Amino acid sequence: MELESMTALELAAKIRQREVSVLDGVKEVFDQIESKEDKVHAYLDTYKKEAYARAKEVEKGIQDGTYTGPLAGVPIAVKDNICIKGKKTTCASKILENFVPQYNAEVIDRLEKAGMIIIGKTNMDEFAMGSTTETSAYGVTRNPWNLENVPGGSSGGSCAAVAAGETFMALGSDTGGSIRQPSSFCGVTGIKPTYGTVSRYGLVAYASSLDQIGPVGKNVADCAALLEVISGHDPKDSTSLDRTDLIFSRSVEEKKLLGMKFGVPKEFLARGLDPEVKESFMNTLKTLTEQGAIVEFFSVETMEYMIPAYYIIASAEASSNLERFDGVKYGYRAAEYEGLHDMYKKTRTEGFGEEVKRRIMLGSFVLSSGYYDAYYLKALRTKALIKQEFDQAFEKYDVILAPAAPYTAPKIGESLKDPLAMYLGDIYTVAVNLCGLPGITVPCGQDKAGMPIGIQMIGDCFGEHKILRAAAAYEAVRGAFPAPAKGGKRHETV
Prior knowledge:
Strand order of the largest sheet: 1-3-2-4-6-5-10-11-9-7-8
Structural class: alpha/beta
Low-confidence stretches: 487-491
Radius of gyration: 21 Å
Mean pLDDT: 95
Shape: globular
CATH architecture of the domain at 3-255 and 438-487: Alpha-Beta Complex
CATH class of the domain at 3-255 and 438-487: Alpha Beta
Oligomer: single chain
Number of strands: 11
Number of helices: 17
Helix content: 40-55%
């Protein structure tokens, strides 16, 4: 078996059995980066020298018993809004172009403790605000299935890197679908955990009540193993939960759908859903029922309020979180200005991209005197009603099913023409963040052009085990999903 086609767990098993070395895995990743990165642009920075040195250290650690975990020796990429000590963390923004953190995010410490090798920082939408990875100040990431298309966002770099074979796995962050939607567009698997399961310490905040770090991998088992590594209580994060049910790999082993109850919101299949995505989704429902699952349709009355509530809350929190980037303490500062006020104004005007400025202004507006009650408080009340509806649904169903996105990956340049249409593309993902729920996206088909389609499985709070069990069981029936170079129908693949 070629190293490129191995999953992360398969590579780690080969390393433990001494059939391949840690260095072989790292070399494979950098070979892929060198051959594909000029086309895909999944990375903002790579750490080749450090990765090779770390590989030797980990090899020795595996042999002497320091690193015993199931992912020891596996190369991993990290989204560029997660801090690594001594390495630039830009959030794909000009305003943080030279920011170098003096500490590690909690998840980075956990990756290193598990014997994993960080190979670089992946591209993203600026400050995670976008659904296409086109708003990055450092260039567009392209979809490995077709280089004319976007990879999704905001964790587009992480998902594209996994899809292109430029890493075995990656970390992303998910505020409104930023792991699940690009996973669908790139034909990989991604998990957004229950809010508070993974520490946010060292994650540059976009919307603090919605942000969660999560894994991206080639299959469900890889993601479950990585989620085990990064989850757990962290006293440095006030929202971190002290959970005891963090052995996620057991759920993957079950692979049984018999007797599981799945609910499908009828409103999710209404106007705006691409016919090919709908067909693939319905075929997946059929597969689940054939395996003994019970699939029922039900109504979600708050559907039309999800996008407005999300964008009001997320933009309000972004407006507050991003006020720290002012040119005083760190980051970019305008070269020419007259006085302090002018320095603030010019720094922020020059440093932030258009989409970020749009959301800051929207957030500042809904928090302003006279509009706070009319918009922000109303959005919070709406959020509570959405959560109530999902709570009621989970009294009846084990898992809720939804498309990951209303369409497959659009062409580069299409989405930014109409920001509102881009926002509406998050229709199936934002509720998970508003309610703090876990969700996983797994590939379930391809459209006529060969672009991947993903299905989203949503669980109740702390319900990762159920969605992992369901996703692994579906994956086993579906069989292996092709890689871009082999599965894409168009010639512009990598």
